[in-house]
Inverse folding.
């Protein structure tokens, strides 16, 4: 495996994984998504609603955070590294099917789960959360501009928005749980580099 390493001896065992632009896209997106989730909880969970109060302000924050959610990704398209990683996330190969079969068999051995820069689980999550976010944006707009659509559309949009929000909350909790269990992956998103050992073990098909 040919890995590019930093020149200084102290960083000789590190591999560059994410650019600064990619890390900022992830941070801002995570922040906006977190605001959406927290404000949604304050709007729909009575205990949180009573604790926070000021429902109208919470609604406005929720709406604007949702509208701004696509902005970091759109801005990130100016980065060549970000565009390249979007291409990797959208590209599936035989090794991804092998990875998924290993997960179904609950085979946790790294050798049974071959992966390039992103594994099949990360690709699945990225595709699902992108699609879910677009549906949430569309249904949210239908709920916001009530005078533009029939009542049946608004009722259906509210139903989809509410239940999909609950699903997103569950999936995000799983995503955060996976991240908490992998300090090297978190370090990669925080600093942009990961250990060579981790890269070779978890993403042995990756060629930086």
């Amino acid at each position: 495996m040919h890995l590019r390493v930093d020149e200084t001896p102290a960083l000789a065992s590190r591999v560059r994984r994410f650019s600064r632009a990619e890390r900022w896209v992830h941070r801002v997106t995570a922040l906006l998504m977190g605001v959406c989730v927290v404000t949604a909880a304050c709007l729909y969970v009575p205990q949180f609603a009573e604790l926070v109060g000021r429902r109208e302000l919470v609604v406005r924050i929720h709406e604007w955070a949702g509208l701004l959610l696509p902005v970091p990704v759109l801005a990130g398209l100016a980065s060549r590294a970000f565009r390249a990683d979007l291409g990797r996330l959208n590209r599936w190969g035989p090794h991804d099917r092998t990875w998924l079969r290993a997960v179904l068999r609950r085979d946790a051995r790294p050798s049974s789960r071959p992966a390039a820069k992103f594994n099949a689980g990360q690709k699945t999550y990225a595709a699902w959360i992108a699609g879910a976010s677009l549906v949430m944006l569309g249904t949210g707009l239908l709920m916001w501009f009530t005078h533009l659509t029939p009542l049946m559309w608004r009722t259906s949009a509210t139903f989809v928005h509410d239940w999909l929000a609950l699903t997103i909350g569950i999936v995000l909790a799983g995503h955060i749980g996976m991240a908490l269990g992998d300090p090297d992956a978190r370090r990669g998103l925080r600093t942009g580099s990961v250990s060579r050992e981790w890269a070779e073990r978890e993403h042995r098909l990756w060629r930086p």
